[in-house]
Amino acid sequence: MTMSYDVEVKDLWFSYDGEWTLRGVDLSLARGELLALIGPNGGGKSTLIRVLLGLLSPVRGHVRVLGVEPGVSRQVSYVPQDTSVRRHFPIRAVDVVALGRKDPWRPLTEEDRRLAMEEMERFGVASCGELKMSQLSGGQRQRVLIARAFVSRPRLILMDEPTANLDPGSQELLYRELKAFCDGGGTAIVASHDIMAISSMATSVACVRGTLHYHPAPEVDPGAVLLAYGTCPVELVAHGLPHRVLRPHGEEGSGGSGAS
């Protein structure tokens, strides 16, 4: 029987103005996986996420998200890296979260706002509900957008540096909620520079630096150590078991399902 994947990418190439940002990327994620997407600035992490969202179109390659071509779907939620808003933009924080539930053909309802407030309470920003987004701190805006990602009860969550503005307590809460989400059958991809924290929760790790170095599951290898972060391949040690990222996709010996 052919295995189905929530995310399936084959031979993905993408360029900005003729410069290749992603080259021959292959990636397969089954339901329930939490992928830690790591790598240096400019390596292509954000670009890969935007391709999976349908915001960017690849030059070539096969991309399927929840079995279809990428596009707008309430089954897919997104937390962007940039949380900035225009100073005088009037939208309230609770409405930003509630918009995560809104269908294009109907207005927001009180039920939408009630569920939005539940998620804001969960992430510690319920007191900000009536404030405009422009009145919030960077960390508060980040938590509002995280609450919006969860409010639609999605199947897949894509997050781009979601802890960049968060204090340690909020980071721990987010990672705990992400783990519970994936344990419950959701799938998540989290781009992060917080290597040790995210890798301790991840079921798989990928390092993106133009090409993609992928490891689908931790293997017992006491000799694995954290090597230079800015270069691939790298090895990650977390929660007593190492995640090992050894070779680019397609290279003999890279191993593992989804690393074809």
Automatic annotation (TrEMBL):
It comes from Thermanaerovibrio acidaminovorans (strain ATCC 49978 / DSM 6589 / Su883) (Selenomonas acidaminovorans). PROSITE patterns: ABC_TRANSPORTER_1 (PS00211), ABC_TRANSPORTER_2 (PS50893). GO terms for molecular function: ATP binding; ATP hydrolysis activity. Keywords: ATP-binding, Nucleotide-binding, Transport. Gene3D superfamilies: P-loop containing nucleotide triphosphate hydrolases. PANTHER family: METAL TRANSPORT SYSTEM ATP-BINDING PROTEIN TM_0124-RELATED. InterPro entries: AAA+_ATPase (IPR003593), ABC_transporter-like_ATP-bd (IPR003439), ABC_transporter-like_CS (IPR017871), Metal_Ion_Import_ABC (IPR050153), P-loop_NTPase (IPR027417). It holds the Pfam family ABC_tran. Belongs to the ABC transporter superfamily. This is ABC transporter related protein. The keyword Transport applies. It comes from the Bacteria. Residues 7-234 form the ABC transporter domain.
